[in-house]
Every structure is written in structure tokens, then in C-alpha cells.
Amino acid sequence: MGAFHAYDIRGKYNVDFDRDTVYKVGFFLPELLSCDKVLVGRDMRMSSPEIHEYLLKGITDAGADVYDLGLATTPMVYYGTAAKGFSASVQITASHNPKDDNGLKVSCRNALPVGYDAGLGTIEKWILGGRPCVPAAAGRRGRVVPFDIRDEYVAFQRQYVGDYSCLDIAMDLSNGMSALIVKDLFPSGIHYLCDVMDGSFPNHEPNPLMPDNTLMLRKYVVENKCDIGVIYDGDADRVMFVDEKGRFVSPDLIIALLGHFFMQGTGTSPAAVLRKGMSETFRPGEVIALQDIRSSKAVAEYLAPLGVEVRTWKVGRAYAAPKLRELDGLFGGELAGHYYFKDFFYSDSGIMASSIVLDIVAEMKRRGRTFSSLVDAIGTYFNSGEINFRISHKREAMDAVRDYFVSHEKPSASMDFDGYRVEFPGWWFNIRPSNTEPYLRFICEATDKGVLEDRVARTRDIVGKFE
Question: In a designed cystine with 54, which of 19, 113, 201, 264 is the match (CB 3.0 to 4.6 A)?
């Protein structure tokens, strides 16, 4: 079934999956996670009401109760799952995908993700195997309980909101779920773009990683002399930033910037003030941060003097959230714009990340520093960005690229848990198969621009033989 992926269930609705699939997922979920109640939220996509209807019918037919959040950001569902002690939850969303897509993000106790290997694959097997869905007797079916935690969630997020009065801020909500709460969190005076929830996404697709989707924000920041631009994806679990020059900031570099908040208590929010005292109790290397295998070497190099040890792990929430919990890490992030926090049940929240970054940038402006100067102090490498190759023989191409470079240069470090990351003096690369799309992804970074261009060109030649 085309909608079952490593991280979630997602695809074009009524093509990759339909309401019958949704019903069966709902029906099998209580058994899979051994629960009698499921927390459910949904985004504002056009197909979400129908998916919501059939998901709830499946869950209640299985005899479990549904606690229904209604419209919710994905991190709001994570919060409700962990803070309220649910053993299962589902958010109906396709996150940053185009308008005709939709999906289901499933979590279990403590808001830990349920990916393909943790249970979604079992449900797919049950569905493909024709396992019957026999509804419980009328008196034993579950009920639907309206469950409104919006005000509580806003109060929780407000702990991370500081004094941004010195900043001129532009914020693009992508017509997505962030519009549900941001105006109740942030002060008046922010310049909002695309700030009405609309599942047709009339202004641009809700994927900030695509340059066309940040064009409106970048142009607005420059023309209106803003200090910073903020843009969320469709379900508000990711956030990305634009500096005052209109430049898109690589999301992995923000992991390094977060170190100021957690290790120095930089900022004016209640949480930052608390951090000022806590940071003095940490010994160098005692605090752990997490990055994905694609992240710049600049992240670890920047955080080391702040006393943070950076660990590297696989791409995706299904891997990052459990790993941060296992390591008891304080914070972490991914190149895709997800940021994870111990304070947020080791889960990701785009709005929480943006509150912290704005707090840091505001305090730094009071000290005479711009956002671009902060970013430039972190990003000291030339980077290719993620390059996608659409090929059939991914494994053979990956091995060929690794073998070529290893045979010509001696690696200083290597990792093989999510594709390959191989480091050499002065440069490194990661090559990995996408878990959600039919691509082989390659990223390269070097201290010298000429070296970067040479390594990218050689990789294109090698991979081209497998097209």
C-alpha cells in the first residue's frame, strides 16, 4: 500500500489510500497499542473531515473511546498525548505535502512516534491480509468525547515567549495550522502573511524547504526592513527562518543557535530566565544535543565551546524523538526544520522553536548583533544543499559513491546507519535513500568551494550510471 511509510501514513487521498483504509487503521489501532482510548486531532485540509469521520468510526467500532481535539496542530496532539497520559493518538495531516495529500501521524505513550517498524507495518499487513473488522456489539462500542486543551496548550507555549518589542518580525503561516494559536501567543505588531487556515493553500504550498514557497516572505522581509522572517509548514511541527537580508537560513544551523538559550539562558522569556540559573550547573560535555546525519559540521563545532556534546542519528521523527529520550538530550533538530525539546516530551514543536529563536535574536539585537551575523558566525562551510536523484538502483548507487571516494581518500570518520556519512579532512558527504519519496538524496559540505563543486560533479557522474 503506497501510503504506509517509515514515519507515518501519507499520500494522495483516494489514490494511495481511502476512507476504507482509514477505517481499518482506526479499527486495528486499539489492539495494536493495547488501549481503550485514543486522542485524535486534525488539520484543515479539504479531505480531513471525511478522514476524521471514518477514523473515529473505526476506533469506536473497535470498542475504544475517542477524545476528539478537533482542529489541532500536530505538536498540540503530541502535548495532549504525553501530558494527559494517552497510550495512543492520531493526527490527521499530510504536514507539508500538497493540498490533495493527507495522512495519519500515530503516536503512543509519552508521544513516542509509531513508525512502520513500530507498528504501522503490522497494520498494513493486517489490512493487506484481509483481516476482518467485526464491530463490537452496540453496547460495547466506544464513544466520542470532545476534548478541548487549546487554552492549556497556549499557556504551556507562552512560557517560551519573550520580549520581542525590539524586533520587526514577518511571519508566514502558510495558511496552515499555526494560524490556530500564534496570534494568541505572540505580541501585536507582527506582520502576518497567509494567516488564514485554508486547506486549498491559495498562496503557496506549505513546504518551507522549497525556495518558491519562501519567496513571498523573503521579499517582504527585505522590502519592509524586518529583522527576521518566520515560516511554518502545514501542521506547525516545522519552522524555518529568513534573515534580515532575505536569505533563507539552513535549518540545521538553528540547532547551534538554540545553544544560547539552553546553555546561557539567553532571552527574556520565563523559560530563558530559568535557564540562566540552570546552565551554571552543567559541566562541559554533560549536555547532549541531537542532529541528523545530514547536519553541518558547523553545528557541533559551534556548540562544543558552549559545553554541548552533539550526537548524530537517523533522519525523521520516528528515529529522532526516541533517540533524544534515550540519550536524555536537552534539544535537537533536523535539516528539515524539526526541533526537539526535552521540555516538550522529547517531541518537536515549530512554534516552541520559533519562540526560542525569536527570544535569542531579540536579546542579541539589544547587544548590537543582527540575525545574519549570528548565522554567519555558525555557518563556516560551503554546502551543496540536498540534491535528489530519481533512480531505481539506490543501494548500488550509494555503494558506488562511497567506494569511489573511500578508495581515493582516507576517511577521518564514517557512519552507516542512515545511508552513509563519510568524513574526510576538509569535506564530507551523506548519501541516503529517502524514506518517503522515490529519491536518493545526497548532500556535501567542504571548507573550499572548489572542492565542493568537484565532489558534487563526481557524484553526479557516478550516480548517472545507475539512472
Answer: 19
